[in-house]
Design a protein that fits this description.
Blueprint lengths: L1 H37 L3 H16 L6
C-alpha cells in the first residue's frame, strides 16, 4: 500500500514539473531569442567588434 502511494506521489510531482515547464516554455524561448539578439556569446561579440573596426576604417558607416 505504501509503495502505491509513493508511486502516485512521484507521478503527481512529475506531472506538476511537466506542467510548469510547458507553461513557461514560450517565455524561455523568448529569453533565448533576446540573448541571441544581444549577442552575449563570446565568439559573436569578438567578430562584430572586429567587423565594426574594419568597416569604419574603410569609411563605411555601420551604425
Amino acid at each position: 500500500m505504501a509503495k502505491r502511494i509513493l508511486i502516485a506521489q512521484c507521478a503527481l510531482v512529475g506531472l506538476g514539473i511537466l506542467a510548469l515547464f510547458v507553461r513557461e516554455y514560450p517565455g524561455l524561448v523568448r529569453e533565448i531569442r533576446m540573448w541571441r539578439m544581444a549577442s552575449f556569446r563570446r565568439g559573436t561579440t569578438r567578430q562584430s567588434v572586429s567587423a565594426t573596426v574594419s568597416d569604419t576604417s574603410k569609411g563605411r558607416d555601420t551604425g
